[in-house]
Q: What sequence folds into this?
């Protein structure tokens, strides 16, 4: 967790809190989070919640990544997690995670035109990005992380050459489908972020195995050191916590595979990562530089949406919102969701006119949408689906109770706006009023 203040347009870190929960280690064979991992996570979030107690909701962003993307019982856990933290928690896609990581790293790099590679190892996934300045060019999220790989190949902390070979092979298989495309893009500098890379970088620097950066030769030396130790508990001499040492073997295997697959010569340890990226993204929203607005505009252009009609519907939907927001308790974020859904409601026409609301919902649900969490995409998809024909109660019934009520109300407002502009013609609507009840 990072707490920062904006001074003269720049973020200044006030506090950093970090605890290794290793949530990925709690996934069982059925991809369900076990009780001990849930308890550890909730206790950690409760401590963080104490620090964030006085902060307004609009100034806090919390996200869940690969483990919560996979966990079959993520919904139930998420409700308890949000209660413990005192703020909402978004689940983000692998692509969005990669984008935010790149933002967190790139903001602390020179603003030059050189292409750079950013590489991040998490507990359950690994993100690779090639970009220039603040814009990513190519992003991938691979289903291999230091926690999962360590648990699979180094049970009980045993470190053997055979286990390391198998771990490296498993990591190589994840890189194989994308390595050629990334090598073809090329880069002038490479950066690694997050705990595993920093831990390895600290060992390399302490042992003087490089000139301040990480090389493949240094990784091979570290591998020899681990194998000579034979047990994770013998790695205390490396100067890292017991929790970090437990996942170091898997993280090292991923690093070696990345260097070999992508032909990385040298890797610098970056200061920023996902948390910093979240802060900069939040700052952009506060400054009305919301990447989500660009994403919506991009989708409208990609699928050749009738922008004039979308604007008419969006304008009327916002008028309906203004008439009902106080009674229904609809906030600014709900208003943004309604506006975006109005602009996307006809996106499915790019596929077919018949059942275009269903096609549109599918496109919104499954497109890569920079800036949006899974929950936000799910809401937009539900609104697009529900803007015409039979009201899809089964879709809204899948939301938690509070969000479901908000989603239904937004869908009603969108349906009304669409009906009022059914003729697809520019015309001035007569003045109207809406009367709603708090329970409707």
A:
């Amino acid at each position: 967790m990072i707490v920062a203040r904006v001074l003269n347009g720049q973020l200044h870190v006030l506090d950093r809190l970090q605890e290794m929960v290793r949530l990925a280690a709690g996934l069982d064979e059925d991809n369900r989070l076990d009780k001990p991992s849930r308890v550890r996570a909730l206790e950690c979030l409760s401590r963080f919640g104490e620090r964030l107690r006085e902060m307004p909701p609009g100034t806090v962003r919390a996200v869940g990544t690969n483990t919560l993307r996979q966990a079959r019982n993520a919904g139930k856990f998420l409700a308890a997690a949000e209660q413990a933290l005192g703020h909402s928690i978004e689940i983000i896609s692998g692509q969005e995670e990669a984008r935010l990581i790149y933002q967190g790293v790139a903001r602390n790099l020179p603003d030059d035109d050189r292409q750079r590679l950013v590489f991040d190892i998490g507990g359950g996934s690994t993100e690779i990005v090639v970009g220039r300045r603040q814009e990513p060019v190519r992003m991938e999220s691979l289903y291999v992380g230091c926690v999962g790989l360590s648990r699979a190949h180094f049970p009980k902390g045993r470190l053997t050459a055979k286990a390391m070979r198998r771990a490296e092979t498993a990591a190589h298989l994840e890189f194989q489908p994308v390595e050629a495309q990334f090598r073809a893009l090329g880069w002038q500098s490479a950066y690694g972020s997050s705990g595993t890379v920093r831990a390895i970088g600290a060992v390399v620097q302490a042992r003087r195995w490089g000139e301040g950066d990480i090389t493949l030769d240094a990784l091979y030396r570290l591998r020899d050191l681990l194998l000579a130790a034979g047990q994770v508990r013998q790695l205390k001499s490396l100067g890292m916590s017991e929790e970090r040492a437990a996942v170091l073997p898997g993280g090292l295997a991923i690093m070696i595979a990345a260097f070999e697959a992508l032909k990385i010569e040298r890797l610098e340890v970056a200061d920023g990562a996902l948390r910093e990226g979240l802060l900069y993204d939040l700052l952009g929203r506060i400054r009305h530089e919301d990447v989500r607005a660009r994403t919506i505009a991009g989708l409208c252009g990609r699928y050749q949406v009738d922008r004039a009609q979308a604007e008419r519907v969006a304008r009327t939907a916002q008028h309906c919102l203004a008439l009902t927001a106080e009674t229904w308790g609809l906030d600014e974020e709900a208003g943004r969701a309604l506006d975006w859904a109005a602009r996307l409601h006809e996106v499915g026409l790019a596929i077919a006119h018949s059942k275009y609301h269903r096609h549109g919902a599918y496109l919104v649900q499954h497109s890569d949408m920079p800036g949006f969490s899974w929950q936000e995409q799910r809401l937009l998809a539900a609104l697009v689906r529900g803007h015409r024909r039979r009201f899809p109660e089964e879709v809204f019934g899948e939301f938690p109770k509070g969000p479901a009520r908000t989603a239904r109300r937004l869908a009603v407002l969108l349906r009304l706006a669409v009906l009022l502009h059914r003729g697809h013609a520019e015309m001035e609507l007569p003045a109207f009023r809406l009367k709603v009840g708090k329970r409707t």
